[in-house]
Design goal:
The structure is a homodimer. By secondary structure, chain A is α+β, with helices and mostly antiparallel strands. Chain A has six helices and five strands. Chain A is globular, with a radius of gyration of 17 Å. The complex binds zinc ion (4 copies). The structure holds a DNA duplex (30 and 30 nucleotides).
DNA sequence: ACTGATGCGATATAACATAACATATGGCAT
DNA sequence: ATGCCATATGTTATGTTATATCGCATCAGT
């Protein structure tokens, strides 16, 4: 089970590297490592959690080390920041631009990235009516996920 | 011009106090003062900005003092937190429950609270499809406001 | 070689938020 | 009146998240 997942992570890293080439951006060792740590994480990872893991292989890593990598990865749309959690997750749909939307479960901590076009359109229109040009949109729904709603039936 | 605004703030404070009574919540001096500081602020106010102002009249105020008041005011839906800015604004539409939506201008810092029912419905439906029950939703559009988009025509 | 852009190292500090325990107050049952 | 509980706030300390700034190395274009 671990092997399959590792292969998937590797494939995602390669995809990400190719996307960077296409965008004229440099996927360095550091950035690739931080992205790998995020991909390998079970859920959202905070900057300092990533830093701790990064330190295992990169002795001198300090906060700016990881924040710089995160800034790059966010600019490339390879990862998203969850503002409610101050934590980072891989983009579930890299490659095409989208208005990321998240469902964050308070019970189990699970985060799901969804993409509801109707909601995105509605917000774009609402902004347009105000003459507002959105550059970055945060949409995070915090509550109870399906699994945690059901009283463990079975 | 200042007098008019002060009267409006006072009216808002009284409304807020009444809402608290209806909700069985205690609008204490401290909480009222923090709400007043938020209402008087020109724009979004951070917790530490509020703390600094609070200290002028409440000598021993420390971070927990203001964070507790903010927690109360948020629970009463009298203020919102802007997650992108770690800052607080008064609710523009107190009294009726709503999915707050914000337009945050990067240029001038202006924040507008809007309420687009179509977007809210779409997100509720999207969550429902996933079996997710939202309790709190963050919607923040960051970009350029109408005033800042126009090259100062005149 | 010179220059500018980028990536990263390294140190320090700023900004944001909470834990944990103490004290005060008021309502209420005995 | 006394004891008890809940709520609000005081108090001290700490934890967590993020940035500023300066320096060095590399590399591409000139
Ligand atoms: Zn995404
Ligand atoms: Zn859950
Ligand atoms: Zn509101
Ligand atoms: Zn503006």
């Amino acid at each position: 089970m671990g092997a399959k997942r590792r292969r998937r992570v590797m494939a995602q890293l390669d995809q990400a590297a190719q996307a960077c080439v296409r965008a004229g951006a440099q996927m360095t060792d550091l950035r690739r490592t931080v992205l790998r740590l995020i991909l390998e994480a079970e859920g959202p990872a905070t900057a300092y959690e990533l830093l701790d893991r990064l330190k295992r292989t990169r002795k001198g890593a300090v906060p700016p080390t990881v924040y710089r990598a995160l800034d790059f990865l966010m600019a490339q749309r390879l990862v998203h920041k969850l503002e409610r959690l101050n934590a980072f997750v891989p983009c579930a749909e890299t490659g095409h631009q989208h208005m990321a939307q998240f469902l964050i479960c308070r019970e189990c901590g699970t985060v799901a990235e969804i993409e509801d076009r109707a909601a995105a359109r509605a917000l774009e229109h609402a902004a347009g009516r105000e003459g507002f040009q959105p550059r970055h949109t945060v949409i995070e729904l915090e509550g109870t996920c399906a699994a945690c709603s059901h009283p463990a039936s079975g």
